[in-house]
Fold:
Amino acid sequence: MVEEKEIVANAGQEQVSKKGAKKQAKAAKKAEQKAETAANIAAADAGDGAIDHAAGRYGLSPMIQSQEKRSERVFVAVHELSNHVGKGLLWLRGRLHTSRAKGKQCFLILRQQSSTVQCILAVGDVISKQMVKFAGNIPKESIIDIQATAVSVPNKIESCTEQTLELCVEQLFVVSQAKAQLPLQIEDASRPENTDDAEGLNIRVNQDTRLDNRVLDLRTPANQAIFRLEAGVCRLFRDILTEKGFTEIHTPKIISAASEGGANVFTVSYFKDSAYLAQSPQLYKQMAIAADFDKVYTVGAVFRAEDSNTHRHLTEFVGLDLEMAFKYHYHEVLHTIGNTFTDIFKGLRDKYSREIEAVGQQYKVEPFKFLEPPLILEFAEGVAMLRGAGVETGDEEDLSTPNEKLLGRLVKAKYDTDFYILDKFPLAIRPFYTMPNPDNPIYSNSYDMFMRGEEIMSGAQRIHDPEYLIERAKHHNIDISKIAAYIESFRYGCPPHAGGGIGMERVVMLYLGLDNIRKTSMFPRDPKRLTP
Amino acid sequence: MVEEKEIVANAGQEQVSKKGAKKQAKAAKKAEQKAETAANIAAADAGDGAIDHAAGRYGLSPMIQSQEKRSERVFVAVHELSNHVGKGLLWLRGRLHTSRAKGKQCFLILRQQSSTVQCILAVGDVISKQMVKFAGNIPKESIIDIQATAVSVPNKIESCTEQTLELCVEQLFVVSQAKAQLPLQIEDASRPENTDDAEGLNIRVNQDTRLDNRVLDLRTPANQAIFRLEAGVCRLFRDILTEKGFTEIHTPKIISAASEGGANVFTVSYFKDSAYLAQSPQLYKQMAIAADFDKVYTVGAVFRAEDSNTHRHLTEFVGLDLEMAFKYHYHEVLHTIGNTFTDIFKGLRDKYSREIEAVGQQYKVEPFKFLEPPLILEFAEGVAMLRGAGVETGDEEDLSTPNEKLLGRLVKAKYDTDFYILDKFPLAIRPFYTMPNPDNPIYSNSYDMFMRGEEIMSGAQRIHDPEYLIERAKHHNIDISKIAAYIESFRYGCPPHAGGGIGMERVVMLYLGLDNIRKTSMFPRDPKRLTP
Structure:
């Protein structure tokens, strides 16, 4: 690799002599032959062997190995260019989004995340024919450094985010070269989903090709926006709860006993023993409450060994979990969680409008509607609404996925909200540690929350009395000896508490109205996918 | 459980008739006999059978099942009591820290996390003999509700954090009763480590007893402070990096291939296949960089199947990881990380002084010293300092743990800092993806950072050129086919980048000067411990 430093075109600023340029160009050709990926870049001496007056102002940079600091080079971001029009030479680093050489000119589009700007190289005093050809042959998606001046343009450049200016390039170096053949084209992966293309060029990239080549797929403006908004969801969740007096905790993922009965749990080899991956941080959140942390949240990986191949199941996802001691009624917690959601929705609407718009460019989605305070319905009311719509469903029957979605539509039609809370689920369909409803024993102090008709969080008041917990566990035919440690946690005084677990990827998927959870997990895991 | 609602002393505010009181007292007695844990609480009619004029103002509360909202009861926090002196009756919920009945009086200490206040019950118009006896028999660590007035006291109460006031109790109910026999006493678990007790009562609680009973152990003032400060470390890490333009990402913990060669990795059964637990999010952070996220961080579980039973190794810990594209020199990243640490230390010093002080009450520790900007030494300088101190060590030899600690002491003596950065580690002792130093091939563009002489983060410039990465992997005799996906990530253009991984628990341990990482992991995992 060291020799490559010498064989590429000089990245320095001095003009090189004719002899030097020839030697360098020859070396560059050798480098090309060596590097498979460089094959389609024209060497400086391609063409008629004429003197290249631009030599030294373009080429392949040596691999950046931290040889020098170059702190004199101040780089400008594409989205800040409008402040730099007419202010002399600027440096920019970005990706070559597209290039088009046409006779004595070459048009490039330089991309930085979601921002793009047109760049022009025209043969003249500064730019040589060879340099134009070199520019036209750089593989798309390569990282390039350019030195250029920003100039205003009379007509809007529709194909770029910077529409009122372009860059006149004077130097151009390839910092990291992409393969000539890409497994997917960013333009195809970015194309709007639901539009008919008059020219019949409806090329789309399917989900598996995207995920197999995630490093490329994530570069689309929609994906850049989705994962920035996802970071926003976590940030808002934490900031809002911290403001309310919650403490962040970290709970172990490797556990000695399966948390919810042993089904759907991944087994881990642990030295000479076996262990499991936690399906939920619930026990640990509850222990933190019993240990006087009062209000806690945790953000972390949650594992489900469910062989569900659906649009909304992952085997590993990020849980936004919280647990809170209350004084007398679990609605103290229910309202805290509900208001946290409302505040997250407001935060996304106010601080992530650019990202929401970018996603909207590719996926057509209705804006997310919510009420403040959020709508709370009792489970029995939901059942009544479903029955009103002609659905037959029992009082203690869980909501099927179609009924869940139908109820979401009924709620939207009646209350104009995409978020609501369903309270007091039937006791029979909730886990043993759920506190029964004191007024009607067929129900429980438990709740689910929904976005666009899909469940995104489940929670409940937990039984904090060890004797009653044993009674309820026995009722569920659970082997008490296997949950002894759990029960023991409540023997040293524990305040009444409630909480819940939120699926981060589902929140982002449903907030944006996307159709698949794999669009909101950066590197999704499902029963059939473990890579990349 | 439902019947228990009727048999405990009435938690309402009305006076009950003599007949009612007797019936209730009898019922309370029955409840006691039933509930094993209630056995040592005196029932209201214990003693001479006299009329109890305090009946209804104390007793075991029914299990709080969200029967009522009681929103009229406003609770006051112990640490806010000084604002409520002489302002009438207040409600407080907390733990019974200690109780001492003496004739016609009973002194309780009520605890809320780290705050404590003295409460007094004295037989008189409001309080009965029976009520004093009841109070004296409540097991320590039970959760209680009291109604009381706050009054100033002439002499400082040394045993409480509220030293200028006490509470005159008028009502007292047990919300959640602790077992009478606790596996450890909070007072023992809170006792200062390095003091000699004149009375010879040097009872300490050993590490395993603490961890086996973590729900109790975590209630000590030092532990309450440690985990609040730990939450602060994460919060500062994220806020500082977000401010610098970093985006949070989430990386999968279940991976298809062992990230660093296959040693020390936990195996997971994944449906019909095997998978592994990620030893580091590094590959995914790098992919995020190759996918144009520019600067990323992630906070999450990291797994090491190392059979190391030391004071500083865990098999599962929380990684604070970051990765950043740079322009020309990895020192752009090194300085970013170094300054992030300085900002974290400043944030802890400024915002967590109460927590630091609370830890200092139990563990004697020197304040943490740091320089701004942080000290950066080259590895070779560190070797020279060690040799100057008489240690024999080779130029390309890794630092042994004793040498690491010695160097920390030498640096502290010379520069008066507990934090420093060691730059340019020998290439031979770093992983294959580490970028060699361009100036001297025995060194590399890699660095470790140290707190109080122990390594808390390791990082490097990574090789972003796929051909060079293959060359280096071959040099390390790594099977290229097994890292094909990793190499492939760099074939579509990737900016030069560097990053590192920080062990959260180590940062907290060393910032506070604690001696064991199990003190800073809420539920630690090591080769011998998987519970609780």
About this structure: Chain A touches chain B through 114 residues (CB under 8 Å). Chain A has three domains: 58-63+70-176, 186-219, 222-519. The longest strand of chain A covers residues 89-102. The domain at 58-63+70-176 of chain A is CATH 2.40.50.140 (OB fold (Dihydrolipoamide Acetyltransferase, E2P)).
